[in-house]
Every structure is written in C-alpha cells, then in structure tokens.
C-alpha cells in the first residue's frame, strides 16, 4: 500500500462507510477487473449492440460536436483503463489521469510506457478510429493519447480537495471525464452527491463533464475483491447533477443484455451523461 493510500484510508476513518469502501479496495486486482469487463464477451467489439461499442460511440459522438474542447482535461478515477480517453485526446493538449489506488496508477503507467506486459487496448483503439472515420490508424491514436497524458495523480473524491493542495494539474480544468467511479466508491447516495460536488470544484464555469456509470448495480468482482456499489437510477443521477450546478446536455442509457450478464456483477444498465457546469 502506498503512503497516499494509507493517508486516504486514515482520512476515511471518520466515516465508517467510507472506511469500509477504502479497505475493500485494497484487495482490488486490476488485471482481473480488466479481464471481466474488457475481455470477451463484454470486450468483443464485433457485437455492435454490446456495451463496449455503445460507450465508445457515446464518447466519440459527443467530442465530434466540437463543443467539448479546450486545453486541459482531468479523468476522475481512471482505474486501470484508457478507453475513455481515446476520443478525448484529439481535443485537449494536457490530460491528467487519476486514481485512488496505487496498483491502478501503476497499471496506467505500464501502458503509457508501452511495457511488453501492458494490457492490450488495440481493439478499442481500432474501433474508435473506425467510428470516428478520420482515416487515422490505431497506432497513431495510441501515440496521440500517450503524448497528451502529462501526469497520473492520486485522488480521493471524498475529500473537498480531491487532488490535494498544490496539485500539479492545471486548475480549474476545461473538462472532466469519469467512468464507473463515483457510484463504485460511495457507500450511499449522500456520499455520491458529495463526491460529485467535490470533483465539480476542479472544473471551470461552463466546463463540461462526461460521466459514465452503472445503473442499479450493488456489487462487482475484481479478483478476490467483491466491491459494493451504491445502486442508482437515472432520476437520481439527474437530481445529483442539478444539485451540483450542471445543465444536462445529453443523457443516454443502455440495458445490459442477458449474454453480457456474466456473473462478475449485478449491473442492470449503463448511463452516459454530457453535462455543462453553470456559469453562476
């Protein structure tokens, strides 16, 4: 466990629910999580009705509007994944990736350094190039993303300053991306709301938030770890965004088909939101 992880667990001790979440994540296994969710069948991108193509399409179509652009972007709770930034990297010059767990930050570093044992995201990169239709090769896409990621930082979304004081990330940032983070690390709906409030402080007025998350999920597996999730519905996500000072620009939902319900979680569906922070 890194010193940052120990500090975060100590700070969580004042809240038993958060303490339990932090403790459970110390058993998180990045490669198991990746196999469960980004290998077959969920990672079979040839199934165009699958969850992978749906998420990539939501992101690509939103960035293609040309409205979500700027200098800096922060990915909140990146986990061990990079797919969520494959479209974003064409529209921002400075990308910060973040995660609570050192093992996930290490996993991201392995991919960025192109280590031989890095998880292979090439099928995702190829699919993004296909749906974007710019004639770009997947190798060019991955080179571009690697060149735009400037730092990987610890984060705790349950702290009022999620990146800590004096963060090297450019603040306030022009955009936030977050996939399967807030609901997965919040013991209840109030914690989800506070976490959303906290990350919103990192975003400039009129900045954009792209949020992907699980609908009506209560647990998921990552190796020996069985992690609790706060079950949320579309109405609750919309209400939380309104309370945090956002206008929803687009809200899409996906129902998980039976063939993708593989026993690694109890997720019922996925949501994608494009929201814009109010100016005042």
TrEMBL record:
GO molecular function, one term: phenylethanolamine N-methyltransferase activity
Superkingdom per UniProt: Eukaryota
Keyword vocabulary terms for this entry: Catecholamine biosynthesis, Methyltransferase, S-adenosyl-L-methionine, Transferase
Pathway where it operates: Catecholamine biosynthesis; (R)-adrenaline biosynthesis; (R)-adrenaline from (R)-noradrenaline: step 1/1
Any Pfam family hit: NNMT_PNMT_TEMT
Gene3D superfamilies (UniProt xref): Vaccinia Virus protein VP39 (3.40.50.150)
EC number, UniProt record: 2.1.1.28
PANTHER family: NNMT/PNMT/TEMT FAMILY MEMBER (PTHR10867), PHENYLETHANOLAMINE N-METHYLTRANSFERASE (PTHR10867:SF18)
Protein name: Phenylethanolamine N-methyltransferase
Gene: PNMT
């Amino acid at each position: 466990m890194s010193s940052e992880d120990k500090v975060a667990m100590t700070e969580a001790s004042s809240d038993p629910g958060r303490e339990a979440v932090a403790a459970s994540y110390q058993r998180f296994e990045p490669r198991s999580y990746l196999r469960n969710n980004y290998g077959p069948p969920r990672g079979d991108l040839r199934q165009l009705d699958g969850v992978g193509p749906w998420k990539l399409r939501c992101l690509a179509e939103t960035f293609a509007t040309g409205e979500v652009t700027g200098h800096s972007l922060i990915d909140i709770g990146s986990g061990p994944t990079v797919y969520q930034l494959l479209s974003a990297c064409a529209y921002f010059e400075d990308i910060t990736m973040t995660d609570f767990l050192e093992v996930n930050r290490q996993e991201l570093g392995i991919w960025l350094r192109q280590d031989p044992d890095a998880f292979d995201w090439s099928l995702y990169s190829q699919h993004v190039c296909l749906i974007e239709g710019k004639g770009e090769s997947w190798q060019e896409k991955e080179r571009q993303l690697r060149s735009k990621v400037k730092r990987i930082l610890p984060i705790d979304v349950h702290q009022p300053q999620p990146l800590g004081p004096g963060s090297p990330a450019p603040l306030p940032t022009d955009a936030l991306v977050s996939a399967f983070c807030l609901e997965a690390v919040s013991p209840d709906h109030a914690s989800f709301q506070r976490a959303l409030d906290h990350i919103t402080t990192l975003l400039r007025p009129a900045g954009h938030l792209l949020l992907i998350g699980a609908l009506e999920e209560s647990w998921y597996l990552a190796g020996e770890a069985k992690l609790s999730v706060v079950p949320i519905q579309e109405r609750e996500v919309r209400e939380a965004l309104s309370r945090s000072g956002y206008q929803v620009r687009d809200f899409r939902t996906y129902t998980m088909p039976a063939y993708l319900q593989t026993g690694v979680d109890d997720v019922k569906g996925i949501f994608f939101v494009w929201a814009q922070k109010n100016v005042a």
